[in-house]
TrEMBL record:
Keywords: ATP-binding, Ligase, Nucleotide-binding, Purine biosynthesis. GO terms for biological process: 'de novo' IMP biosynthetic process; cobalamin biosynthetic process. This is Phosphoribosylaminoimidazole-succinocarboxamide synthase. Residues 6-232 form the SAICAR synthetase/ADE2 N-terminal domain. It comes from Halalkalibacter hemicellulosilyticusJCM 9152. Its EC number is 6.3.2.6. The lineage of its organism: Bacteria, Bacillati, Bacillota, Bacilli, Bacillales.
Length: 240
């Protein structure tokens, strides 16, 4: 497979065409951003860590029957994926109160939720990715009520599998963000990445953070946190 023209460059990844129809080449970048790009740094090794962690997680989900755009890891920082048209909604699943939920509802960070909740955010940098209701989504015309049911169900299913996975690693899955896309045939597939950039991951015993809050809140080394997650996931096996 040959890498083709650059299709899109985002904050954390570059996406290229390939010589295969409907298949793309993703390159992770060493850049870390937060607060809608206001805080920005180059952090050596971040691309490799997110690529390896996403590879292990998408492989695990695929083995558990969750279909995604992921085809295979190509190198330390690159992946081969199926082309999808991204639905401009961020699907956030929460097991524990943290981050914007804590701020919005005045609930203490770390409070366990009785059942997981799902939220939708409209992907729009100019608007700062606002939280949207199902009625907002209807007037934005980005997904049908049936699509939203599918996104909710898939979000809950991914949550169930990831809780099981992280439980064995002594990690508390606090919350995470998913993105989905449509194939030309109209299937909805899990897309983008699942990494410590997109999840909150706390050590079960010490509450130590291993995720992007290390960078957002300046509370430690992002690379050390992500390296810990990769090593608990058994990362040596995917660096071959
Ligand atoms: O900031 P907030 O508490 O809403 O984030 C919820 C979860 O979604 C966190 O795990 C965060 O890392 C993730 N997220 C993300 N990309 C965004 C917003 C949130 O990965 N643009």
């Amino acid at each position: 497979m040959k890498k083709g023209d650059l299709l899109y460059e985002g904050k954390a990844k570059k996406i290229y065409k390939t010589d295969k129809p409907a298949e793309l080449w993703i390159e992770y970048k060493d850049s870390a951003t937060a607060f809608n790009g206001e805080k920005k740094e180059t952090l050596a090794g971040k691309a490799r860590l997110n690529n390896e962690i996403t590879t292990l997680i998408f492989d695990y989900l695929q083995k558990n029957g969750v279909k995604s755009h992921f085809i295979k890891r190509l190198s330390e920082t690159e992946q081969h994926v199926k082309e999808v048209e991204i639905i401009p909604l961020e699907v956030v699943v929460r097991n524990v109160v943290a981050g914007s939920l804590s701020k919005r509802l005045g609930m203490e960070e770390g409070t366990q939720l009785q059942t997981p909740i799902v939220e939708f955010y409209y992907k729009d940098d100019d608007l700062g990715d606002p939280l949207v209701t199902e009625d907002h989504i209807a007037i934005l015309d980005v997904a049908t009520p049936e699509d939203l049911l599918v996104l909710r169900e898939k979000g809950q299913e991914v949550n169930k599998h990831l809780i099981t996975l992280f439980d064995t690693l002594n990690v508390r899955l606090v919350d995470f963000k998913l993105e989905f896309g449509r194939t030309k045939e109209g299937d909805i597939l899990l897309a983008d990445e699942i990494s410590p950039d997109t999840c909150r991951l706390w050590d079960k015993e010490t509450n130590q953070r291993f995720d992007k809050d290390l960078f957002r809140r300046n509370i430690g080394s992002l690379q050390e946190g992500y390296e810990e997650i990769l090593s608990r996931l058994g990362g040596a096996s995917c660096t071959k």
